[in-house]
Design goal:
alpha+beta; seven-stranded mixed β-barrel; two-stranded antiparallel ribbon
């Protein structure tokens, strides 16, 4: 599929522990056959305050999903267009079928602030408690490798090259 902004819509479905965590419509920005990029407003209810960033109504997420990578990168902008940063979900490679993008959340996350000075690993306790290492050791290794790689790129100031 080769789409331009505004031509098509997909439903993004985030699955966690076998259940749909969230599902929302997103406009396709681009799809090169490996990476699909979509744009959608903040789909959560109300405000989610992490302490170092707030996701809130009016925020716009430009989300990058790869069919061959173990993560999804979401650029987060405030309603006025100001860049807040990037939220990265560690996931299995995206499954894109028809008008749906489905990803399985593997609990680990990484936040990179807009200026690159704040890099935060998130939910490592949830990942450890998930039992993934016992159920699917290969997936657990891929998840940990993806998180380590993304953090290293962020610390080297090369994180945004993923999106070129």
């Amino acid at each position: 599929m080769s789409a331009r902004w505004g031509e098509s819509w997909v439903d993004v479905t985030l699955v966690k522990a076998g259940r749909t965590k969230i599902r929302y419509p997103a406009e396709v920005v681009a799809d090169d056959g490996n990476r699909i990029t979509v744009r959608a407003p903040w789909a959560g209810e109300g405000v989610k305050d992490f302490g170092f960033v707030r996701f809130e109504p009016g925020d716009v997420f430009t989300e990058h999903y790869w069919r061959d990578r173990w993560y999804a990168v979401k650029e987060v902008r405030a309603g006025d267009g100001a860049l807040k940063g990037w939220y990265t979900d560690i996931t299995r490679p995206a499954l894109v079928s028809g008008d749906e993008v489905m990803v399985e959340d593997l609990d680990l996350d990484l936040w990179v602030s807009a200026d690159g000075t704040l890099i935060v690993r998130l939910d490592e306790d949830e990942f450890a408690a998930s039992g993934l290492a016992e159920r699917d050791p290969r997936a657990a290794e891929e998840a940990e490798r993806a998180l380590d790689t993304l953090e290293l790129l962020a610390r080297q100031g090369r994180f945004t090259r993923l999106l070129d």
